[in-house]
Amino acid sequence: MTRWVLVLLALFLPCLAAAQPVPNRVYALEGATARIRVPAGKAWEVRDEAGRVVRPVAPADPDGALRLPAGGWYQLFRDGVPFGGRFAAGYVVLVTGQSQAAGLFHASSPRVGAHPAGPGDPSAPPVSAVLEGCFGRPGCPPEGTRWVTADAALGARTLLAELARLRPGIPFALVHAARGNTGIADLLDLARPADGYLAVVARATAPVSALLVLAHGTTDAQRGTPPETYIVGVGELVRLLREAGGNPTMPALQAPLSPLRDAYGLLGSGRLAEWTGLALGSGWLFDLGFAQVRPLDAATAAHAALIWEAQAEAARRYGLLPGGEMADVETGRDGIHWSAEGLRRAAREAAAALAAALPR
């Protein structure tokens, strides 16, 4: 019973609360403006952070929506009283995939490609946000999602900062719709049901501006997923997320699986190698056997090549746009997940692709 109550809340609360902006939300531009639905019969106005009126409307437009240009943070006022939290109008990018994509949004697990930002890394733009699923976590709203700022995560910060540099004056938001250790069939399971994690997250921010499938395919290379099964699965995933994201024609980009390489460790531990900063190659630690190289499994390497070909065919068959070049992205000690520098490069590649794909 509790589960179905949560499902109903996730489906209907966004509609009920549409008139009251959730703090830090970015509403997607539809053409030159974003639509913020409000009930008729009230005197509405929007002010910027300096208190200047941006778009007074009294009453609401005939379709029950305020229309705002790109910008923020904005504040909605009803009859002169603040209503809801600060919000912005810009582009909303839904990012899906497995651990490489999920690593964009986390800072505490370098061994799976989730790195903290350092002092030399750019800060996230002051008007930017991330929508994450928070089902079951303390303080999570009933709808199971929340808008946050990209403070510590290297990947999200780099991607948002690069988007702001390439498309100045337009706020951006990222939607975390990735899950580690998921093959294409697993992602479909998460996107297909009405209460599926990916579908709920996508609906919470509809309409979405663009979809990025980022460097997926490791698990399918390891499992030996048939190429045609993978191709059809990518097409179905894109269809489902476009539908859940409320924009069936949104640009869909695919960044291919990044190369899988040999793994190496120190005293049998990849974590110890990571902690000591051990670099792959020759040296006394390798010569004496304290450090070891674990070659990439031949079957996995062979099937990874088939997955790359399948991704290229999926792009042709379903009209997917390039999501960035991943061939030279650096991996960490396990030969799969990205190093911090690899994550920076992947984020910059994805940002360039998104900036080119989104309307100007």
Describe it for me?
- This protein has 360 residues and is an alpha/beta fold.
- 34% of the residues lie in helices and 22% in strands.
- The chain has three domains: 15-88, Immunoglobulin-like (Sandwich), CATH 2.60.40; 92-259 and 298-357, SGNH hydrolase (Rossmann fold, 3-Layer(aba) Sandwich); 263-294, no CATH class.
- The chain has eleven helices and 15 strands.
- The strands form two sheets. Strands 1, 2, 3, 4, 5, 6, 7, 8, 9, 10, 11, 12 and 15 form a 13-stranded mixed sheet that branches. Strands 13-14 form a two-stranded antiparallel ribbon.
- The radius of gyration is 22 Å and the shape is globular.
- The N and C termini lie far apart (47 Å).
- 46% of the residues are buried.
- The model is unreliable at 1-18 (pLDDT under 50).
- It comes from Belnapia mucosa.
- Residues 1-19 form the signal peptide.
- Keywords: Signal.
- InterPro entries: SGNH_hydro_sf (IPR036514).
